[in-house]
Input
Amino acid sequence: MAFRKPFLFLLKFCFFINMMQIVGSSNRDAAILLRVKNSQLDDPLGKLDDWVETTHNAPCNWTGISCDPQTLKVVSINLSNFNVSGNFPADFCRILSLQNLNLSNNNLVGPVTSDSISLCSHLLSLNLSSNYFDGNLPEFSTKFLNLTLLDFSFNSFTGEIPGTFVNFPKLQILALFSNLLNGSIPEFLSNLTELTRLELAYNPFRQSSLPVNIGRLTKLQNLWLPLTNLTGKIPDSIGNLVSLKNLDLSNNTLTGKIPESIGGLKSVEQIELYKNQLFGELPDAFSNLTSLLRFDASENNLTRKIPESLASLPLESLNLNDNSLEGAIPDILALNPKLNTLNLYNNRFSGTLPRNLGMNSELEEIDVSNNSFEGPLPQNLCYRKKLQLLVLFENRISGSIPESYGDCSSLTYVRIQNNELSGTVPEEFWSFSGLERLEISDNKLEGSIPPAISNAKGLTQLVIFGNNFSDKLPSEICYLHELAIVDLSVNQFSGELPSCIINLTKLQRLDIHENMFTGAIPKTVSLWRDLTELDFSHNRFFGEIPAELGSLLVLTYLDLSWNSISGEIPEELTKLKLNKFNVSNNRLEGKVPLGFNANFYLSSLMGNPDLCSPDLKPLPTCSRSKPVSFMLVGILSVIALILIGSLLWLLIKTKKFVAFGSKNKQSWKITSFQQVRFNEEEVLASLTNENLIGTGRSGRVYQVKLKSGQTVAAKRLWEVVRLPESERVFQLEVETLGRIRHANIIKLLFSCIHEDFRMLVYEYMENGSLGDVLHGEKGGVLLDWPRRFAIALGVAQGMAYLHHDCVPPIVHRDIKSNNILLDKECRPKLADFGFAKTMQQDGNDCEQVMSSVVGSYGYIAPEYAHTMKVTVKSDVYSFGVVLLELISGKSPNHSSFGENKDIVKWVTEAAFSNQEQVKENVALDQILDIRMNPSAIEYHQVKRVLNVALSCTSELPTNRPSMRRVVELFKLHSSTHIK
Ligand SMILES: *[C@@H]1O[C@H](CO)[C@@H](O)[C@H](O)[C@H]1NC(C)=O
Ligand SMILES: *[C@@H]1O[C@H](CO)[C@@H](O)[C@H](O)[C@H]1NC(C)=O
Ligand SMILES: *[C@@H]1O[C@H](CO)[C@@H](O)[C@H](O)[C@H]1NC(C)=O
Output
């Protein structure tokens, strides 16, 4: 027993020593982690709050930390999405056991220096993506022997990819996409032979060619290089990439032929070569690419035929549109069991469409428009009932529309105009419930529009001109409330227009010329508020021209010629701003209204024998042909009219006066949003010309000084005749501004409505709009850089509130310097919510398709203009434009930018023309507003704001930061130290 004790002691001692080592090392790790946390990171969400020494099992139990289960040493730090900020915390790498460091999706800023990164040579993976790092990429020493993943994507790194990036013998993933790299794509990348992913997309690289020896990367699975300024040929060695699954070289300027060797990509699933300058014929070398699902070589200069070996692959989609391809589509394509998308438009294809197309696969989209296809439509194109897009226009396709197409209820978009189709259209073909667009014009189709068309509730465009359709227009057409464009012209329609047609409130174009319509022109047309074009010419309409046409204020095209219309030309029509006005060849009579009494309109008036004019030759003169008694009666009645008119006017005036002056408030609907010490009469009395301070799209704005000493701004909206959406604008302002409160959003005090009179009263902003201050002639206050920065931050905060704190989020849709108002201290507030959109949060992408683009020229995001999809990212784009205005002092469409250039293009070119220059502030000086006091400019801050502006105005919405991120970034930049 006595012998045993020391042994036991020894055993215990050894165990203790061992424990000490473990505890010692984890203590050191913990100490390092805490030091970084406390001195180098800002953690606004408190994600790292559990990093405290007293935790059991520290630091392995801490959020974001993982340890090796045996040694209890820290092996991974993962702070992805923690919202932390600060500079690159390289000190984490002082933990020698650390293998994986993931700091992605945070708000880290500043450069990543070669010195700091050199601490990290023992890492296996380093992920810094989606932060705001900038400056050059760091140099890497030769010690990074074990690094397999390097992800610097979604940052603002500039300059070259350093030569030391070759020092990664084990690197598998290199992701540098979505930065501002502007060097070239180096050849040495082909030495990184362990790479499985090489992702450099979306960088403004200098023109460079693909590494000639790219084929050495035989383990590569993803080669992702769209928008990287690649030029020259695709090297033959590409065919050696036997593991490659995705080849994306789209959106570059690659030239030459697609190499034969492409047939070696035996694992490839997707090939994207669209938007390049590739030419020559497609190689007939695809037969081994049996995994290929998507092939897109559209928008190149390819010629000759589609090779059989490509057509016989089981592709899901084949896109070859916008080339110069010719010949027939190989029949074998119709046997493909997977094909769902086929885009061959804008080529020179000919022959008939494969007979069995659609039989064997779930075809969803086919667009072969603008080719020379002929012969019949494939009988079974919609056999699987999945077809949505049928686009065949501008070909020579003949025969009838097969009866089977009547069962294709999945169709939403049909454009088969400009062909040689004949016979009747299957009745159901008019009436699919999801149909949005039906264009079948310029064929030889006949028959009538069936009442069943009422089922196509979503139809916006019905364009069927240039056929032989006949019979009456069924009144069921009035159920199609979305109809915007109706073109039935050059057909054989007859009978009267259904009177309910006046209820189609979204009509923009109604063209029924050259038919045999008869009856009167609808009289009460005031609901056609969006109508810009009305063509009833060459029909058999009779009766009078309705005066109410004069109330359609956006109408610019009015043709009623060649009918049997009688009566006088209503004076009201002269109020319209018409580009086209034609009432010739009718039975009109009386005096030509003064507004049309000009030589310019003569041809529009001819062919009406009873129309007269005091002086317009050769129209008969009104007075001379009429006997004196008639004249007297005329004069007398004019006098009488004037008298009655003035009496009426007086009556109305006094009535109005009564309404304004008396305290009869019943008819006024008034809503107060804040405590106000005034009443509407006091405001109304001040809406006079001398108080007018601005006239805008939605109305007039007056400055109103109240007895209480307070000054407010009152906006009187245009009447409905001037602004048809007046009511909606009013409602939107009231609904949005009435329920939100933010220091950077204008305060609505008060609203007031009475019949056609709508008024909104806001807090008064002494310094007017930012647009006026920056670009106005008067100049206004001079904004030096610190004030401009404060304005940028304030606007960003207001917008972040709308986008992220309001539930559901609000998209302003008209962010521009004229809608940013400045108070006495030049603090900014967002105004004008008449076009704002509250997003419905169904679905997670939060985007909505609008029926028309609102917003202001120069501020509209490119994708919004094209797709009409509105997202918060469209506002971010407009905000980016405002930032560029603040930096440059120029308006977004300043004439000095030159042809087709806006501020975004101008600044982007200046900023990227020479990155060294940006460093030296030279390029910056070309952009900076010279009116700013140079000594007050913080160049460093300007550069950062410029970087934010450039990412806000990225073409791709996903590359734009959220407003919340912008705010965080600005805040970081406004003070150099953290905490
Ligand atoms: C830490 O880890 C230990 C064991 O691994 C566990 O029992 C404990 O609940 C964990 N949590 C805390 C807060 O200590
Ligand atoms: C690389 O990994 C090996 C094996 O895990 C290790 O022995 C070596 O020390 C590591 N090298 C570096 C530079 O960390
Ligand atoms: C790339 O590899 C080739 C062939 O092994 C070699 O000759 C060349 O020096 C390497 N390039 C660099 C920059 O290391």
Observations:
- The chain is about 20% helix and 20% strand.
- The first helix runs from residue 4 to 40.
- The two ends are 63 Å apart (CA to CA).
